Structures are given as C-alpha cells and as structure tokens.
C-alpha cells in the first residue's frame, strides 16, 4: 500500500454556506466531518500534503462553511463545519447542523464520509448522530481516530479495537483506522479508502 500522489495536486475550489451554493452536483465527493478540534483540517492537509489547504486553528469552530477541494476533474474532498463546540452560539450551531444534514441527505455526488475523532475522545453523542445520518443517507462511513501519536502503540490499538466493537454492537457499518498528522501514520490507509470510493 503506497500513498497516491494524485491527492497532492488538490486545490481549493469553493466555500458554500448552504448546499444550494455548492459546486454542481456531479462527479464524486468524499466529505470530512468531526467535532471541532478533533484534527479534521490536519487530516485533510496531511492527505493532500498541502500545509494550509484546509484551515487549522487553535480556536475550535472556525470552519463555518462547506469547503470544497478539487482533486481532479471529477473528484472532490469536502470539509464540513466542525460540530459540538460549546462556545459557538446555539443559532449558529443549528444552522451548521441543518446545512450538514441537507448536504448529507441530498447530495448525489457524495460517496462517503470520513468521520474524524480524537482518539482520546471517540464516539461522543454527536459522533453517533453523524453516523446515524450517514446510515439513513446510505453513505459509506470511515472512522479516523486522529492524534494516535498521543497514545502508546498498545493503547492506540486497544482504543481502535474498542471503537470497532462499539460500532458493530450498534449495527453501524464502518471501516476504521488510526491516523497521526504528526508522523503521517495512516496516510496510505486513508488514501486507499479514498481511492476505492473515488474510483482511482
């Protein structure tokens, strides 16, 4: 399994506050969802080897739009608004949730979702809600446990196994992996899932 250099040519395409403002609903897309501060932007930047393609911030809740990135003529990656950050006004949280749910339920080009979770805090209530949205929309789901470098190898593997058992127990169909933007571990596995979903 080797990284796919195709992703290294990914470019920013467009930001949209609501799905109606998104690029034409054609080709194939993979969306990245997750709690604020779970490391979602860092995952996208590592996958594309573009340091500032997706904006990272020490202040959670900065991704407030649907951000579209063009991989090639027919494929895109989509950074969804981070969710679950308490200091964001309730009205704004509700607006983000509505935009994400509309996008997940009705976007024909959307092939699947990378659900990004901090390995130290996996499967929060709102992560389960996202998984439920994906199931109802018949979307493929890939769980990415980020910041794996924060734990020992044994502890990280144990957490991954616990997550797999939890989703299986709930009847959720999902693939899972460990990931670290610091040492780029998990990059090849992430590329492999994207390759499969996007037809590369």
Structural commentary:
- This protein is α/β, with parallel strands linked by helices and 200 residues long.
- The chain has helices spanning 40-48, 90-106, 125-136, 153-169, 187-198, and strands at 11-16, 28-34, 66-72, 75-79, 110-118, 140-146, 175-178.
- A 7-stranded mixed sheet has the order 1-3-4-2-5-6-7, with helices on both faces.
- Strand 6, helix 4 (153-169) and strand 7 form a beta-alpha-beta unit.
- The longest helix has 17 residues, at 90-106.
- It is globular, with a radius of gyration of 16 Å.
- The chain starts with 10 loop residues before the first strand and ends with a helix.
The rounded distance between the terminal residues' Cα atoms is: 14 Å
The tally of strands reads: 7
Q: Determine the fraction of residues in helical runs and give it as a percent range.
A: 25-40%
**Beta-strand residue fraction:** 15-25%
How many whole angstroms does the radius of gyration measure?
16 Å
SSE arrangement, N to C: EEHEEHEHEHEH
Q: What's the mean pLDDT score? A: 90
Largest sheet: 7 strands, mixed
Number of helices: 5
Strand order of the largest sheet: 1-3-4-2-5-6-7
Structural class: alpha/beta
- Which residue ranges are poorly predicted, with pLDDT under 50 across at least 5 consecutive positions? none
């Amino acid at each position: 399994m080797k990284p796919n250099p195709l992703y290294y040519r990914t470019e920013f395409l467009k930001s949209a506050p609501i799905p109606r403002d998104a690029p034409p609903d054609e080709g194939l897309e993979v969306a990245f969802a997750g709690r604020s501060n779970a490391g979602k932007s860092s995952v996208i930047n590592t996958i594309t080897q573009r340091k500032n393609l997706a904006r990272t911030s020490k202040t959670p809740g900065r991704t407030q739009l649907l951000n579209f990135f063009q991989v090639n003529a027919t494929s895109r990656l989509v950074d969804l608004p981070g969710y679950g950050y308490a200091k964001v006004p309730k009205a704004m949280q509700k607006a983000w949730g509505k935009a994400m749910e509309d996008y997940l339920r009705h976007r024909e080009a959307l092939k699947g979702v990378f659900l990004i979770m901090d390995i130290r805090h996996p499967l929060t209530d709102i992560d389960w809600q996202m998984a439920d949205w994906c199931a109802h929309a018949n979307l493929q789901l890939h769980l990415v446990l980020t910041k794996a470098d924060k734990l020992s190898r044994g502890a990280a593997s144990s957490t991954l196994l616990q997550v797999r058992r939890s989703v299986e127990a709930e009847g959720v169909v999902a693939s899972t992996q460990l990931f670290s933007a610091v040492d780029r571990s998990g990059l090849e596995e992430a590329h492999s899932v994207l390759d499969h979903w996007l037809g590369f």
